[in-house]
Amino acid sequence: MKTGVISQKTIASDDIKDTRSVMGMSDKGMELAQYFLRDRIYSNKVLAVVREYVSNAYDEHKKYGITDPVDIKLSSVNNQWVWSVRDYAMGLDDHSIRNIFGVYFESTKSNDNDSIGGFGIGGKAGFSYTDTFYVNSHHNGIKTCYICTLGAGTKGIPVGEIYEISKESTTEQGIEISLEVKSTDVYDFSNTTSDFVKHFAPDAKIKFENWYNTYYYEPSQPILTKVIGDYTLNQYEDWSNYNSGNTFLVRMGGVLYPHKTPTKITRKFTNTIVVDVPIGKLSIPISRESIENTPLNDKVFTEIEMFLDQLEKEEISELTTPKFGNTITGHDSISGNYYGPWFQYNYKTAFEKTAKYYYNTSRRYKDGNSYSGTVSTSGGKHMVYLIPDIKNDSNWHKRLISALTTISGTNYNGYVSMRKSNYDAMMAELDSTIDISDCVFVDVKTLKLPKLEKQTVDNSSYQVFAEYGRKEYHTVDDLDAIVTSKYFSGTDVADDWYLHVSDMDKIHRRTIGLVKEYGTRTSYFTANSIKMVEGLKELGWLTPECPEYRDMAKKFNDENQRLRTIANAENRLREVYFGAKFNVKVVDHIKKNPVKINRFENIKDIILKEDSTRGRILTSLRDYNRKITRQDLRKILMMKD
Known about the structure:
- By secondary structure, the protein is α+β, with helices and mostly antiparallel strands.
- The chain has five domains: 27-217, Heat Shock Protein 90; 224-294, no CATH class; 324-446, no CATH class; 462-562, no CATH class; 568-638, no CATH class.
- Helices cover 35% and strands 20% of the residues.
- It has 22 helices and 24 strands.
- The chain has an eight-stranded mixed beta sheet. It has a five-stranded mixed beta sheet with strand order 9-10-13-11-12, covered by helices on one side. Strands 16, 17, 18, 19 and 20 form a five-stranded mixed beta sheet that branches.
- Helix 3 (45-64) crosses helix 6 and helix 18 (569-576) packs parallel to helix 20.
- The protein is elongated and about 110 Å long.
């Protein structure tokens, strides 16, 4: 991969040429640089080994047109686990072996975008994990075995050394790299390699023979593929555990970069989407662990976003728009998602015009409240009643409700209405994106609706809304007597009555709120009459604004939260520690002191940040959503190195 670090020759005037000196590095600095390049640039050393050596092998197969798969193995040899990768290309001569595996920044891939590497670092990745790894080169009829090991160096800093250990004739070709795996890291090598192979480019010939779980892995195949510009979109199912919720991932040169979704890519996808980007299109750091946050990369993602916009428009144009009647009948779905081949849409995005006029309808029960069930139908079609455009149309609705029982063929649970002006606007905009063929629109003015009877209200009464909006008329004494009889029977309602109730519902039975308009839905009584509110306050009722009400609300909310915490203590404890079941005594103790779960979680977070065996194991359990037993958890927590 082109590294883009070649610069032009410096032009200097004659009078300063003789003062020139060239920056360099001391012998100790060279050895120290090697130490950092092999041991400090990788945050995940197991993944570094897998990524660098498998990618190099794949590059060699591409370069020479090898159709056999790259072979990767995790196997037990003489009771020692060994990880190896084998390509079947041309192999390397002695000079190339010592350059590629022994000289930093020496690469055969720096000047083109046909290969994944280019920094001259990856061949030494084995040293990031172990002091010793092996290279077997099958080249020109000779198999030469090398050992790469860390020596003391000249300045006391370990440096890599390469020794030739044997030669023999062979009919094979290619390179094999192998290293011994610590027993504590076998699980990590198994999972890291299998994930890397599964998520590699789908057309790559790679096979992982994993004897740790006796399974073979190859690159997963996408369920959908589409070329957009210079990029290829691939859709995969069941990758949620790997990408931790991300739905858009980047792959370059076959290697998946599991970073967060670029901020410019904001849409929702049907499944996990992997975009294959041409090699060299994105800049990556020397560790090759992520995609850099650079203006160049932002430009690439802006271009991808443009192509996605085009694809989304094409996809929306091919979606089947629901009929208007089905929309207003199953209106719960309007807040859900619709799935196209590539994208998820909300109703307003996918069916903009239908959604616009859906929001101009109103669903009602016969008693006037909001309606959410099956709408009125006639002859298999959905009936929509057109209401005149007046400011207060409540009388029209009351008259319609009273008349529904006399209209034959109508479902009387409720109905859907629409203002006449909105209907006229919809008809003027009617096209193939709005299908009203399953609806019957009825202008209520054409119906002979009965007149409403005049209501007589006792002037000494005030209009009150009970909990959840039920309208009633009461005097102050009348409402207090009804509530006391119904909810506080046999109880002495003293001034401090609220201190002796068992739940917040009882508080609401003697709470009155002042509202500016009728119909406000609350758990307590409301009225827009100051006289009504003040009169009930004199009888000991609370208001939502008074400190007594706020104190009791906090008390019951805190208690409910405490009870919920206790009820969920065991589940939360198991969530914190990967599904492990805890001893009954531990669970009982946590239920009595649920705040201690936070301490358990803090301890786990500290361990996850450790550069230790247990830290790496717990990280893999978190990343792959694994569940373990309490015994295994105890063993892991006892590990240190």
